[in-house]
Amino acid sequence: MISVVARRLALGAILGGAALLTACSVLPAPESLTYYQLPAAALAAQPSDPARQALILQVDRPYADRALASPRIIVLPDGNQLSAYQGVRWSDDAPTLLRNRLAGALRDAGQFRAVALDSDALVADWELSGSLNAFQVAYVQGAPRVRIQFDANLRDQRNGVLLQTRRFTLEEPVGGTAVPQVVQAFGRAGDALALEISQWLGSIPVRTGLR
Questions:
Q1: Contacts of 49 (CB under 8 A, 6+ apart)
Q2: pLDDT-based confidence at 23, cuts 50/70/90?
Q3: Cα separation of 68 and 168, whole Å?
Q4: Count of beta carbons in the 10 Å neighbourhood of residue 72
Q5: I want to staple 58 with a disulfide (CB 3.0 to 4.6 A). Which of 98, 106, 124, 159 is the partner?
């Protein structure tokens, strides 16, 4: 014959299990995320000169405000209203994506002896830094467009002199509203930005004998 204590223990276990099942049933399901890399096409070799080809260029991660310094794919559906596409993320935060894209393109261009990142343990001659002020989708007259705005600073690390600054603004129409179409438009805008920056760097005179 089952004792009173045993019956109470069994009842407690049943009630405890029921409470646990109830608690589990009200927990929100984890968000399913899809991650995207920034598409990139190889940049063709760009004209250079022996003095530039002797330099090491360092590409820094640009500064960005909190909204842009994240892996979310930002969209402005109406004016200054800031939102993000649900269920998708970039593979890294936007400033890091842009830094890596520019460094890869400038290596393709072959204008410098080497192109390093600010995280590399190299002593560079020139430093490309700046601010990322836009990396988003904006609706213009009801149509989505990717917009990238990068304020670039080029500094001679050998003497600390700021050589030049320039603002780059790129816009690229999106061929639809689906996220893969948005991502492809970001890739085209990134390619165009990389080409403009490469051409800008190629136009800056190189001072020698500063070490």
A1: 206
A2: very low
A3: 17
A4: 19
A5: 124
User: Please, are residues 134 and 190 in contact by the beta-carbon 8 Å criterion?
Assistant: no
Return the closest-CA partner of residue 151 out of 172, 128, 171: 128
Instruction: For residues 155 and 159, give the distance between their C-alpha atoms in angstroms, rounded to a whole number.
Output: 9
Record the tokens describing residue 96, joined without a space.
Answer: 């890091």
Q: Residue length, the chain?
A: 211
Distance separating alpha carbons of residues 14 and 18, to the nearest angstrom: 6
* Contact status, residue 118 vs residue 126, Cβ threshold 8 Å: no
Residue 57 structure tokens:
């260029």
On the question of pLDDT at 97 being above 90, the answer is yes
Q: Are 62 and 98 in contact (CB under 8 A)?
A: yes
| pTM of structure | 0.83
Using the structure block, give the residue that is written with the tokens 């409470």: 19
Q: Which two tokens stand for residue 50?
A: 């022996």
